[in-house]
Structures are given as C-alpha cells and as structure tokens.
Amino acid sequence: MDLVVEIYTLKEQFPKSELYGLVSQMRRVAISIPSNIAEGRVRGHRKEYRQFLLNAYGSGAELETQIEIAKRLPRMKNLNYSKVDNLLQEIMKMLNKITASLRT
Length: 104
Description:
The chain is mainly α and 104 residues long. The protein is 75% helix and 0% strand.
C-alpha cells in the first residue's frame, strides 16, 4: 500500500496532459498489486492464493514498464523515482519468494 501512496504522490508531478494516459494506468496497476494479494489471501486455498500472487507479480511487472516509459519521456525523465523504484523492487522480491514457497 505504501507503493500506491508513492505512485499517487509521484503522479502529482506529471504533466496534466498525462492525467488520463500513463498516470491513470500507473494508478490502476499499482492498486491492483495489494488488491490481488488481499483477494487471494481470503480465498482459503493455497493454489488460488498463489494464482492471485502471480497476478500481483504481473501487475508489478506492468508498473515497472510504465515507470520506465515515464523515465524516458522528456517532461517526466527528471523526476525522482527512487522511492517508487525501491518499493517496487522490494515488493517484486517478496512476491517471488512467496509464490515460490507455495509451489505444489
């Protein structure tokens, strides 16, 4: 959830022209990471939980790509992405470890 807050904070620095483009996509996919984790956890079955964690991992990869795109765009390349990058990297490592431990 900290990542979601950081994405919302970062998006305030993006140009208004990106409000319905990249910003919208980044917010949506960032929110889907903890949402998938929560939904999978309450399902009660190990296999379903793992599948939702894999969905969250996929959303993380999607967010990584969107951040890289933003870093390459002239009006957004000089923003400070370090906190978002660090949080996302930590989340991806945790998801990778948890999904590996749930393999049957």
